[in-house]
Amino acid sequence: MRRNLLLPWVLLAPSMLLFAVFSAGPIVLMVQQSFFRTNYILSLFVGLKNFAAIARDELFGKSIVNTLKFAAILIPFQTLVPLVIALVVVNARKWLQDYTRFAFYAPAFASGIIVATVWQWIFHPTEIGLANYLLGLAGAEPVIWFGRQMTAIGAICIIILTTYIGSYVLIYLATMMAISPELYDAARVDGATWMQVRFRVIVPMISPTIGLVMIMVTISAMQIWALVFLLTNGGPNYGTTTMMFNIYEEGFLYQRYGYASAKSFILFLTILALVLAQQRFRGLQQGFRL
Amino acid sequence: MKKFLAVFWMFALVCGLAFGKGQADMGVPIYTEEKPAVLFVAKDGNITDEPFKSMVTAFREKNPHAVIRHLGIDISDGGLSAMIAYVAAGIRPLYKDYAGRVGAFKVEEYALNLSPYVDFSDYYPDVLETVTVDGKVLAIPLGGQYCVMSVNTTILEAAGFDPARCQNWSVDDFLEMARLVRDNTDKTPLAFFCNNQSADYLYSHVLTWFGADMYNDDYTESNLLAGGAGLKAFEMFKLLYDEGFIPRESAVLGAGDYLAMFGRGEVAAWCGWVGWNENFRRQRVENEGVAWWDFDYVPYPKAEGVEKAPLFMQNHFALAPRSDYITDLKNDIRRPKDAELDRLYAELAVALRDAEESTYAQNSYSVRKSLALAGLPEGLDAEEVARHREIVAANGSWDWGLSQMTYSTIRKELFPRLQALFAGEETPEEALETYVENVTRILAEAKIPWIEQ
Is there a domain that residue A26 lies in? Predict the structure, then answer.
């Protein structure tokens, strides 16, 4: 009996240890450092001064707005586009499903730097770039994609969408495959059309998964950093400086670790608030339906 | 869930406050009284070259008890981060680098006053002034170089502009050249890339065309709003872009792009360091058997009423840490002064100065009266260096604030303004005002970078 009680803890211990060291530990450290001015060798307790300084930090304010712009584009698109793709192929032949999985997931195999390098060429500001070459064929002038905030944010969103959409297609497909085939048969017997099967049967059945994807997309949209670092360096004129990029600059460029931790704390709370709000909204929706 | 979150945050706060690092956590000194160690930090090339090796050998013969550790660091802007990290760790390195980075350490709290150790009478007073704070010489100037404009005479001739006119040209002459190059060739009139701060020498010189002063006398604020020269320069930035005199992709292209353009001979004018043009041409010959373009060094164009357009410059110096620099914030406890360590650092800095002949020779101006331009390294053209010196003598150097401790931060402020200007998000007036405001704020907040106060 006693052995049975211990066994789950023994099995959980490795992952709990990893979680403590690599997730919970850094979060605790981040919260702690946000009350200090520190270079990790010398530290000075400053109470809430870091947070007071953040309130006056115009660039951080701009980075919050930029991050929300990214989120406003990415959350609906990254949630809905893979859903539509999955809905289209869910009952298709197996080879088409396999091909779809592979085709959409393949870009995720490449490292961020390879993805950025390829897209750097695609969005090159001259006719050398594929995007401008195609525009040229249509008789349009080349666009300096990363030269204006609007096009730079748009270009980065396109890169994120095309590269990371595959994971969400996989999640949706896996959930859809788990739905009992009897439900489809029943719907067809009742005369449901192709569209009705998808939107009246499948979508309601996978709504918890849609919520999960939305949360995952929200978190990743709030943490955009690598592509900004590699493609725009936060420019033009800080137009693509996200909260993560700003935090990176504070910490690793200016060595203001305490200040960067305080900003990270705010980012953490922002993500938490968004996720909780989404969950609450979904709860209300479900309550309304019932 | 709510209970869990509440418990988690309480736990995090208690942990943070209980285990926060305080004054007791100080860096461990890397030396002992018996065997002091000196850490020498410089960019990679300087560590392995012969003058450095001979300097170290001479130093070791004189100080057999001392241990020298040397470290080569990346010369990109990450270098400053690395240097700050060493200081933060309690390690006291002797730095040899360009002023933009070492300038951050040129503060009394950290740098050793070298006056008692070195006879500075041989140094040119204006050079010495850049490293002097409150009468204390905090670094040894090692020489430097100027960023001179060069023109591709092959392109100019093809465009129908006589290159001889560039030898004493006005801004109007420059604009005429730019129009001819734009209209009559497929080349770019002026190299201008500003996707980051690294290539600021490619565009900052425009400020000097109009006689703009970057700082007031005591470096407390930017002077660019005074007299209208700064505004004229910002209007020129906009004009250059709108007229197509600089690449339309200027805001998003950087070093990798413009170096290739120079090499291919696709720009009519640009600003760069001595020796670059010849290297580009040599590579061209090696790769393709022929360098189809030729070049000449010219002064910057001058606006009406401006007599001198001073040159963008870069200097190097060696900086030694003092033994009692602040190691603790809370109680301002200082380490006891260690005269032996101070002497060793000063001696190494002096030895470095004496070994700097090769560095001096690669550059275009001297910091010491007794040094003569002799024995240029292979590959450097004496005529080219002489031409540089001629232009420098006629125009002087522009005070870009390179030796100020805030320079590395200030230099990150101009390129975003240019990006905003080119994107039409700001007018020249707005861009200039924001730039001046930011520079003045940085100067006001100037602090020792590795200790946030």
Answer: no
Selected for mutation to probe chain B from A42, A256, A257, A269 (highest B CB count within 10 Å) is A42
Model confidence at B304: pLDDT above 90? yes
Which SS3 state, helix, strand or coil, does residue A228 take?
helix
Tokens 């909780």, residue?
A276
Q: Which domain holds residue A204?
A: 35-289
Residue B89: list chain A partners with CB under 8 A: 41
Interface of B with A in 358-417 (CB under 8 A): 415-417
Q: Do A31 and B9 touch (CB under 8 A)?
A: yes
pLDDT per position as a tens digit, B370-391: 765 555 555 566 777 777 778 8
Rg (chain A; Cα; Å) = 23
Residue A1 lies in a domain: no
Please identify which residue in the block is written with the tokens 């949706």: A172
Mean pLDDT of A27-50: 84
Residue position matching structure tokens 């099967």: A197
Contacts of B331 in chain A (CB under 8 A): none
Which pLDDT does position B43 carry in this prediction? 65
Identify the bridge partners of residue B37 per DSSP, sorted by sequence position. Answer: B67
CB pairs under 8 A between A and B: 117
Which two tokens mark B88?
Answer: 């933060």
Q: Where are the beta strands (DSSP E) in A24-90?
A: 36-38, 43-45
Whole-model pTM? Answer: 0.81
Question: How many domains would you assign to chain A?
Answer: 1
Q: pLDDT tens, B230-258?
A: 999 999 999 999 999 999 889 988 766 77
Residue in A44, A146, A255 nearest the CB of B449: A255
B89 lies within 8 A of chain A by CB: yes
Asked whether residue A13 is assigned to any structural domain, the reply reads no
- Ordered domains of chain B (ranges, CATH): 29-143+314-362 (3.40.190.10), 146-313+378-444 (3.40.190.10)
165-224 in B: which are within 8 Å (CB) of A?
195-196
Pairing outcome for strands B37-43 and B67-73: parallel
Q: How far is A233 from chain B (nearest CA, A)?
A: 8
Domain for residue A225, yes or no? yes
Average pLDDT over residues B74-97: 70
Query: Is B14 within 8 Å of chain A by CB?
Result: no
In angstroms, what CA-CA distances link B75 with B95, B98, B101, B412? 12, 9, 9, 16
Q: What is the CATH number of the domain that holds A70?
A: 1.10.3720.10
Tokens of A134: 């195609």
pLDDT in tens, A234-255: 989 999 999 999 999 988 877 7
